[in-house]
Write a structure and sequence with these properties.
The complex is a heterodimer of chains A (about 110) and B (about 110).
Chain A: E1 3-5, E2 10-14, E3 19-21, E4 24-26, E5 31-38, E6 45-49, E7 60-61, E8 72-74, E9 83-91, E10 97-99, E11 103-108
Parallel strand pairs in A: 2-11
Antiparallel strand pairs in A: 1-4, 3-8, 5-6, 5-9, 7-8, 9-10, 9-11
Chain B: E1 4-7, E2 10-13, E3 19-25, E4 31-38, E5 42-51, E6 54-57, E7 64-70, E8 73-78, E9 87-94, E10 102-103, E11 107-111
Parallel strand pairs in B: 2-11
Antiparallel strand pairs in B: 1-3, 3-8, 4-5, 4-9, 5-6, 7-8, 9-10, 9-11
Classes of the chains: A mainly beta (about 110), B mainly beta (about 110).
């Protein structure tokens, strides 16, 4: 069975500091990994996905198959980054999409 | 809005009553999902559908059933609501595989 673990429920940093949100996964096949974000009073929306290898709003995430991780990073956090972040996994060959418990990021001025 | 709406947006119901939540899409996406969101648990998959009349269970399916009689609608039914089913329910759609999922605005259900 596929599983996503986000070990930090809460994360607080100061504006301009680096931030890393951790995500580990368990899946026997080839995973498709995503980060979704939920800003206050807004819908969940895609932030980025590993297959695109892109940077969105300054965030990047690298899939590390050896460590089964997909950590989200940003070198300089901004106050507008404060939100709930979810890591998600979809297994190749199936379309069952699972999410982690989420990390609430607060960026302080 | 990504062409996905949930109804109702808020509902209060009594223990033991049946409740049906509706997810409607205008995107003709093949895959539809129902999740519940609870503090400390994040989003947990209840059921999902990969086509009309094709559904499968997720990780927390007990006490829930679903139906998809047409592409655009995915219904979630709580057969006999319990207080443990008080939650925020989200519907999502996507075309499949590694594609982006689009979410509805959520339904806040309270079972008293």
């Amino acid at each position: 069975a596929q599983r996503v673990t986000q070990p930090e429920k809460l994360l607080s940093v100061f504006k301009g500091a680096p931030v890393e949100l951790k995500c580990n996964y368990s899946y026997s096949g080839s995973p498709e990994l995503f980060w979704y974000v939920q800003y206050s009073r807004q819908r969940l929306q895609l932030l980025l996905r590993h297959i695109s290898r892109e940077s969105i709003k300054g965030f990047t995430a690298d899939l590390n198959k050896g460590e089964t991780s997909f950590h989200l990073k940003k070198p300089f956090a901004q106050e507008e980054d404060s939100a709930m972040y979810y890591c998600a996994l979809s297994g190749s060959g199936n379309n069952d999409m699972r999410f982690g418990a989420g990390t609430r990021l607060t960026v302080k001025p | 809005d990504a062409g996905i709406t949930q109804s109702p947006r808020h509902k209060v119901t009594e223990t033991g009553t049946p409740v049906t939540l509706r997810c409607h899409q205008t995107e003709n996406h093949r895959y539809m999902y129902w999740y519940r969101q609870d503090p400390g648990h994040g989003l947990r998959l209840i059921h999902y559908s990969y086509g009309v009349k094709d559904t499968d269970k997720g990780e927390v399916s007990d006490g829930y059933s679903v139906s998809r009689s047409k592409t655009e609608d995915f219904l979630l039914t709580l057969e006999s609501a319990t207080s443990s089913q008080t939650s925020v329910y989200f519907c999502a759609i996507r075309t499949g595989g590694n594609t982006e999922a689009f979410f509805g605005q959520g339904t806040r259900l309270t079972v008293v």
